[in-house]
């Protein structure tokens, strides 16, 4: 905690180090900013969970995007939310919307939100919404999802295990009218986004898209029976 506060204070007092490459002079240097503003890519997991919305990611979860996200989420460098929110806005610019976009941030299912004292995904969703509104789009942020219970850490689980681990993990309040876009920091198997979409559906809203800052490229193990059922 003390280290995180010190990091945040140092960001204000001394020329910052780039969270992407460590160079002095900016929170995110121009070269790393270019990597965060590449054209978004469609993320299609090998065995997409049922109900996964069309999913777009601004960057791969490696290199610059990974380092910036970790500094932002784990090291308390909340000022990076501005760069990450812009990155997210860039990944949303191409989404089709004939009315307002409603950004729904995916809440943390672990204790991390309380422990870190901020809601990292909601913060970047709000930055993205401001950016898109400045460009003339109608965009609101609707933090309607709530964790319904604690879930185990997802890392190391297969797609099928993740789906079981996350079943019923979220509940949703009523969702404002508009095209719903789920927002998260990282997508891997899509299990979290599919569960979030399920909770929104239970509250009467269909999710049009999911957009994340980063998508993992590493292969997540797929259980054989999951792959077979996918083929049916
Ligand atoms: Zn850099």
Architecture overview:
By secondary structure, the protein is α/β, with parallel strands linked by helices. The chain has a single domain, classed as Rossmann fold, CATH 3.40.50. About 40% of the residues lie in helices and about 20% in strands. It has 9 helices and 8 strands. The protein has helices spanning about 1-15, 30-35, 65-75, 80-90, 110-115, 120-135, 160-165, 190-200, 225-230, and strands at about 40, 55-60, 100-105, 140, 145, 170, 180-185, 205-215. The strands form 2 sheets. It has a 6-stranded mixed β-sheet, sandwiched between helices. The chain has a two-stranded antiparallel ribbon with strand order 5-6. Helix 8 (about 190-200) links the parallel strand 7 and strand 8. Helix 4 (about 80-90) packs across helix 6 (about 120-135). The longest helix is centred in the middle third of the chain and has 15 residues, at about 120-135. It is globular, with a radius of gyration of 17 Å. The relative contact order is 0.19. The model is unreliable at about 225-230 (pLDDT under 50).
Oligomeric form of this entry? single chain
Query: Helicity range of the residues?
Result: 25-40%
CATH class: Alpha Beta
SS-based class: alpha/beta
Instruction: Supply Rg.
Output: 17 Å
Spatial strand sequence of the major β-sheet: 1-2-8-7-3-4
CATH second-level architecture: 3-Layer(aba) Sandwich
Q: Which spans have pLDDT < 50 for at least 5 consecutive residues?
A: 224-232
Number of domain units: 1
For the biggest sheet, the summary is: 6 strands, mixed
User: With helices defined by DSSP (H or I, 4 residues minimum), what is the helix count?
Assistant: 9
């Amino acid at each position: 905690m003390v280290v995180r506060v010190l990091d945040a204070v140092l960001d204000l007092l001394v020329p910052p180090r780039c969270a992407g490459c460590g160079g002095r002079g900016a929170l995110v240097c121009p070269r790393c900013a270019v990597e965060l503003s590449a054209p978004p890519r469609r993320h299609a997991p090998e065995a997409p969970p049922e109900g996964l919305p069309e999913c777009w990611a601004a960057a791969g979860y490696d290199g610059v995007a990974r380092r910036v996200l970790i500094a932002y989420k784990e090291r308390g460098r909340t000022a990076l939310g501005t760069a990450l929110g812009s990155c997210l806005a860039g990944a949303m610019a191409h989404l089709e919307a004939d009315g307002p976009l409603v950004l729904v941030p995916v809440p943390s299912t672990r204790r991390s939100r309380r422990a870190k004292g901020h809601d990292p995904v909601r913060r970047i969703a709000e930055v993205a919404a401001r950016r898109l509104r400045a460009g003339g789009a109608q965009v609101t942020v609707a933090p309607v999802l709530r964790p319904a219970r604690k879930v185990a850490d997802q890392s190391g689980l297969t797609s099928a295990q993740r789906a079981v681990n996350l079943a019923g993990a979220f509940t949703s309040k009523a969702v404002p009218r508009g095209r719903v876009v789920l927002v998260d920091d990282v997508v891997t198997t899509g299990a979290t986004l599919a569960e979030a979409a399920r909770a929104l559906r239970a509250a009467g809203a269909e999710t049009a898209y999911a957009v994340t800052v980063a998508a993992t490229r590493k292969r997540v193990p797929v259980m054989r029976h999951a792959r077979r059922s996918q083929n049916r």
